[in-house]
Amino acid sequence: MKKNVFVFSRLDSEYVLRLEDNFNVTQLDPQGDIDAQYAAALPEAHGLLGVGRALGRAQLAQAGRLEVISTISVGYDNYDLDYLNERGILLTNTPDVLTETTADLGFALLISAARRIAPG
């Protein structure tokens, strides 16, 4: 039996199709009643996938089957780690994906300032 995954952020259809090979996937409709969609999906969700929503004790109280949350971001400050550990819910993120990009931007700003590109 496939487990249920609730995708609460925009995700390319290619990835949704890959998820659907192994899971029952429910996607958040940003045009609909967001709170109602969460209320309907959380009790059956084994996994959550998305970014930009704070999730902790109050938000996950109805998620009795939840096993994993995958955040599509570098950080994890939107999540109550103590509560997730207490419940045994795994949290994953995508560390280091912006390291080179951030370094490139920093170097570009240094060169721009040194060469006075903006005033030119």
TrEMBL record:
Entry superkingdom: Bacteria
Annotated keywords: Oxidoreductase
Pfam families per record: 2-Hacid_dh
Occurrences of domain D-isomer specific 2-hydroxyacid dehydrogenase catalytic (ranges): 5-106
PANTHER family tied to this protein: 2-HYDROXYACID DEHYDROGENASE-RELATED, GLYOXYLATE_HYDROXYPYRUVATE REDUCTASE B
Protein's name in the database: D-isomer specific 2-hydroxyacid dehydrogenase catalytic domain-containing protein
Organism of derivation: Serpens gallinarum
Taxonomic lineage of the native organism: Bacteria, Pseudomonadati, Pseudomonadota, Gammaproteobacteria, Pseudomonadales
